[in-house]
Amino acid sequence: MTEYSIVVVDAFTQERYAGNPCAVVSRADGLDDVRMQAIAREMNLSETAFVFPSSNATFRVRFFTPQKEIPLAGHPTIATMFTLADEGRIDLSSGRARVTQELNVGVLPVDLERDAAGNVRVVMTQARPEFARRMDRATVAQALGIGVDDLLPDMPVQVVSTGTPQCMVPVRSLESLRRIRPDYGHLADLENTGRFFSLHAFTLETLDPANRAHSRHFLANGGPLEDPVTGSASGAMAAYLWMYGLVRSPAYTVEQGHLMGRPGVVAVEVDAEGDEPTGIRIAGSAVTVLRGTITV
Fold first, then answer.
1. Is 102 a catalytic residue?
2. Of residues 15, 47, 255, 269, which has the active-site annotation?
3. Which of 199, 209, 222, 251 has the most CB atoms around its CB within 10 Å?
4. Is 99 within 8 Å of 82 (Cβ atoms)?
């Protein structure tokens, strides 16, 4: 038997038991795919992150839901890099650092900043946005338990990826968002036929006027049925908002998790050439809530 240190970190928040929890095994040498998947099932969080040495980047990082490995993940990146900084494996003595993480989608940079109060902010660069299949609006609305009239008029329901393909669903209002009650069997079928990992429903109405969008995130085949605060999908959403002219600010914040009792805020930054978003970054803080060991 071998013991591995493991922590649980809440991402996109500075308050414990808010934001999105992620388990992090920061020294995962010796773990194979089967054992990593078993640990992820045992933790039963949206994702568990595993850190290895890399010959191509500062770290090699892999992300597992309770059911499968995924190529890129937002809140686990925030949680993982926060943990590595907390362990002293990322040097923030100057207040800033840039590292790279080798993911299944390639090598991407991560920037970290520590403020005077000691809070660490992690900025994740995601893959270049890709706009894929448009889904039938009525079919998706039915799967979410809402009407077509609840969707934002004249806007496509479309699969967008900044590393992980996710279905973007713009709705009219917070009330429409609150009323979503997914048929997960139907949603699982849509995930398979549409070739996307999960579904991200959002509205431009917000609880806090300082933010630009409020969202909910659902996945039928990948882990917990609703994810509190989703970094990868927030990046894809930012690309969608830019592409279709809904938000053309280069930097702003979005909110998620409030309807689940786990509020969080994601900062997004968009680089673009005209109507086309070319670069996406998401950022947030984190806080550790549990430290322990897991036996393999």
1. no
2. 47
3. 199
4. no
